[in-house]
């Protein structure tokens, strides 16, 4: 009877019962104590909302809810689950009637449907969850509410936003604002965190302005206050609330829309452009960049080739190659990776990033299938989240027997790179990518397609590029690179990367550019 509503894992963990959190416990004691049987049912709310819940002889409030629905009577199981709203919002569910709440529990949450006017599922999923994560309501109840996540955006006025930022500035005599599009475990957010940590080491006090959050939000909050525009903050108000002359870095063209208001409010501002020119055009971001530039923000590209590609639209641009901070990986992770590698009888190929069309996940799988023909014992690894398109492709590849590992985003990526022989760079558009440098930092070379890649011409000693579409040459180069890997080659590559990609030099360059912006404003 309780299958639709009782969640033993939730019940045991939520109420500190561990293995004692059984259905039997809930029926005998939990209901009487007001404990919730699952994330979609609030016992205390239901009893308050329906004081007649015992009239039908139900042993628990949850049992009454299920019995009433079975009898065709609509009931609300949780203050944020309104079955009448749910049916009105989604006409395709009109035939459910009283069972609407059960549909949300079993299917609707996973389909990112909103259960009531009080919970905006689409907002919550985009603002706080990983790109491939579903069930926003369940996340809110089990984790998000305790973390301060909002069930829906709450618009704040310019004055309210200014006051909130001013309060965050209190006690900060050296604030430094860093802006990005989100807190997903990907290149730009990770670089933003690295910049913030390096600035904090120099006695700056980071403050963050993001469009949305994500799985890395806690790491941002550990370094300083975080404002998410998607939650309803007013950008101009936030800019006004900053301490006068707060140095500001907008660390992606995707957030360039923030830069104009920040610059016009008197804050020296850089926009660090990591995206390739064709992507900027396709995403209609050049207008935001031009507006930021006109407002006094300085535009900086990651690679010289990007400056040349954007010169016609944005004029001469300075280039500042991002520094790299090796992500932490415990010694135990390297030991596990070494043991795993010794158990393999063939070469190991790896790639990383948010698996989508731009990252060339389909090209990675095509190369893997071709390499598998030559090396049946080869194994393939992709680190990072998969969107729906990529997940479908991965499922097809796995069904063919491809030895494909998909661990998702991992904190110990360096250990995974060290276990591989070659990094396969199949991106169609990529300004870096940082992951190639991370792999090289532990001695793993790359083979890539010479597509719209920012590091082309700057990779001597790291790897090699092959003409786009030449899969035969790509496979041959990957095979040769795997055979050539040795302890000596790995050591040489590690030394090369250490000398070429120091983060401290990058931070020096960023601060020098900000000083130049301040000097220009003064004159």
Automatic annotation (TrEMBL):
Pfam families from the UniProt entry: Glyco_trans_1_4
Methyltransferase is among the record's keywords: no
The protein's Enzyme Commission number: 2.4.-.-
Keyword presence, Transferase: yes
Keywords: Glycosyltransferase, Transferase
Gene3D superfamilies in the cross-refs: Glycogen Phosphorylase B
GO MF, any single term: glycosyltransferase activity
Name of the featured protein: Glycosyltransferase
Source species of the chain: Gemmobacter fulvus
